[in-house]
Amino acid sequence: MVHAYFYHLSGSHQHRRDMDSFNHRLFYSPVLSPAVYLRRLPVLYGVYFHCAASASDYMITHLIISICKLQAKTG
Question: Of 1, 30, 36, 62, which residue is least crowded by CB atoms under 10 Å?
Answer without folding.
Answer: 1
